[in-house]
Write a structure and sequence with these properties.
By secondary structure, this protein is α/β, with parallel strands linked by helices. The protein folds into 4 domains: about 200 residues, Pyruvate-ferredoxin oxidoreductase, PFOR, domain III (Pyruvate-ferredoxin Oxidoreductase, domain 3, 3-Layer(aba) Sandwich), CATH 3.40.920; about 180 residues, Thiamin diphosphate (ThDP)-binding fold, Pyr/PP domains (Rossmann fold, 3-Layer(aba) Sandwich); about 70 residues, no CATH class; about 110 residues, Multifunctional 2-oxoglutarate metabolism enzyme, C-terminal domain (Rossmann fold), CATH 3.40.50. Helices cover about 40% and strands about 20% of the residues. The chain is built from 22 helices and 24 strands. α4 crosses α5, α4 packs antiparallel against α7 and α11 runs parallel beside α13. The longest helix is centred in the first third of the chain and has 24 residues. It is globular, with a radius of gyration of 26 Å. It starts with a strand and ends with a helix.
Length: about 575
């Protein structure tokens, strides 16, 4: 077999490594170990998993990109595939090319691998693991092999393994150390004899940055926004946020409640806001559907509410462990009747943090529901990023101490009646789900109904003054404009960087309702407009037409449960722009 120099491949200064095996083989353990070790050694790292909806069996994989520059996006290309079980090559074949290197136990794979098509580096992962004590250690052997190829020292691996498994028995710790050292020794042979070489420059910056997931970024944003109550019924992919917040509860004085269902969860959050807390309900599409009556309740009692909606493919259970941007219209029209709302859709970890923190201030200020739309891809992707500025978004509280003649829904030109908290002042804070007068008492008076409804809707005038600016990149004159929202932002940005077209810009929206008042101006300056989003009907494109009257020229849509890849976007933009 000849020398394979991955650093000389088409994509310079980066490698995409994919590990694949059935659930239960520790794919996530490998991801966690390898990414953190590489980041500590000064590499830019991005990782994203894909997995089937089952506890055991099936086939799962994780992509780990390592580069000499920041990487934030999923790529289809596999440079190095580490199959941990038979079936892994078939599962990932749609992403493989003749440049893909298969590194693993060829005897175990049998006729699944065409050695004429792919370059193969045989590594007896299972045999090495069995010699240590159990075939289950084969994933840790693979960590050692890959770390050796990237120049990580054996003792560094051993130290990190010891810390990682510190809660296990000493026997398990020592066997994992033996496994990673054996893998490192085997991988070092490839480097020494020139069989397989990965050459990527490291630097000091990644080591000093944070390395975290979208789930953690949302959680940290909520804490920064002053969140002190979380209610949820577990539902992937939002469950990670619930679990993360629960881990922080003792340190931050946070109440975390796993409710009996999503109806209870949203009503608990409303009750917490009524009592003066800053609450968030976290859920996914099916759970959000159950929350709709509670969301409408928030509308009429003019309660702040923050709901984190982690999107996944529907209808119904759909693909519960996959990704999609299919719930924009659900969030936009959730709840019966008419009342204001705000929809945020972060595209990066930094935005996941800032949008979540801002959601609490916006909800508190305008007394409306604020929805944070993420998805499985954003929540479960990890990469290194600069530390969040926790002082940039101080928690702003907008309630008053009530007087004896307090009226919760007193008329206001800007639609914002002063919000009181029970027990804070002398006034009675009366709220009701029926239409009500200024004091909060039920009424069917038609004039009061008109006045209260119009007062609620007038909040939109102020909300429009606080709309988050979209990101225009590069900030230059353009002929072609690509619009996107949410998690697609880094993918489209890398695709445009690869295309290197001076006539094309990207416009990313992290607030998708209400739309920025200048949107029509951005569109009018373009000769050709393209909207890219992860759903089948172009929900954002329809929203643009509804509010600007502009029909975009092209739509790039994806709804197979997988994220866009950089290559997908490059290919489709090339066709549209040619």
């Amino acid at each position: 077999m000849g020398v394979v120099k991955l650093s000389d491949m088409e994509i310079k200064g980066q490698v995409s490594m994919v590990l694949c095996g059935p659930a239960g083989m520790g794919i996530q353990t490998v991801e966690s170990l390898l990414t953190k070790i590489l980041k500590q050694n000064g590499y830019n790292v991005f990782a994203t998993p894909e997995y089937m909806s089952r506890v055991r069996g099936g086939m799962n994989s994780t992509e780990i990109r390592v580069a000499d520059r920041p990487v934030r996006a999923f790529t289809k290309q596999i440079d190095v595939l580490v199959p941990l079980a038979r079936g892994a090559v078939e599962h990932t074949a749609w992403r493989m090319t003749d440049k893909t290197v298969i590194l693993g136990d060829l005897n175990m794979l049998g006729d699944e691998v065409d050695t004429k098509t792919y370059t193969c580096c045989p590594v007896p992962l299972g045999k090495i693991a069995e010699e240590i004590g159990n075939k289950v250690f084969s994933n840790i052997v693979a960590v050692g092999v890959l770390a050796a190829l990237l120049g990580i020292q054996s003792e560094q691996l051993a130290d990190y393994i010891r810390r990682f498994f510190r809660r296990k028995t000493e026997d398990i710790v020592e066997k994992n150390i033996a496994a990673v050292k054996a893998g490192h020794e085997y991988g070092s042979r490839f480097v020494t004899d020139g069989t397989l070489q990965i050459s990527i420059a490291s630097s000091d910056k990644p080591a000093s940055q944070m390395f975290l997931s979208g789930t953690e970024a949302v959680g940290l944003g909520a804490l920064t926004g002053g969140c002190n109550f979380v209610s949820s019924y577990p539902m992937s992919p939002s469950t990670g946020v619930l679990a993360y917040m629960a881990k922080q509860s003792n340190d931050f004085g946070l109440v975390v409640e796993q409710a009996e269902d999503e109806i209870a969860a949203v009503n608990m959050a409303l009750g917490a806001w009524y009592a003066g807390a800053r609450a968030m309900a976290t859920t996914s599409g099916g759970g959000f559907a159950l929350m709709c009556e509670g969301i409408s309740l928030a509308g009429i009692i003019e309660s702040p509410l923050v709901v984190h909606l982690a999107q996944r493919p529907g209808p119904a259970t759909g693909l519960p462990t996959r990704t999609e941007q299919g719930d924009l219209e659900l969030a936009l029209y959730a709840g019966h009747g008419e009342f204001p709302r705000i929809l945020l859709a972060p595209g990066t970890l930094q935005e996941a943090f800032t949008c979540t923190a801002q959601a609490f201030n916006l909800a508190d200020k305008y007394q409306v529901p604020v929805f944070i739309l993420t998805d499985q891809y954003l929540l479960e992707s990890l990469y290194n990023t600069d530390p969040f500025d926790v002082d940039a978004i101080p928690a702003e509280k907008h309630f008053i101490e009530t007087a004896g003649d307090y009226q919760r829904f007193k008329g206001a030109e800007n639609g914002l009646s002063p919000r009181g908290i029970p027990g804070r002042g002398k006034g009675l804070v009366c709220v009701d789900s029926d239409e009500h007068d200024e004091s909060g008492h039920i009424t069917e008076d038609r004039n009061v109904r008109i006045a209260q409804n119009e007062k609620r809707l007038r909040k939109m005038n102020g909300i429009l003054q606080d709309v988050i600016e979209p990101t225009l990149w590069p900030d230059t004159e353009y002929k072609n404009l690509v619009l996107c929202w949410g998690s697609t932002f880094p993918i489209v940005a890398e695709a445009l960087a690869r295309l290197d077209r001076k006539d094309t810009s990207l416009l990313h929206y992290s607030q998708i309702y209400p739309l920025h008042p200048e949107m029509a101006g951005y569109l009018d300056r373009a000769e050709k407009t393209i909207v890219l989003e992860g759903n089948a009907t172009g929900q954002f494109a329809k929203l643009i037409k509804l509010h600007t009257g502009v029909e975009v020229d092209h739509r790039i849509l994806k709804y197979d449960g997988f994220p866009f890849s950089v290559e997908d976007v490059v290919e489709q933009l090339t066709e549209i722009l040619s």
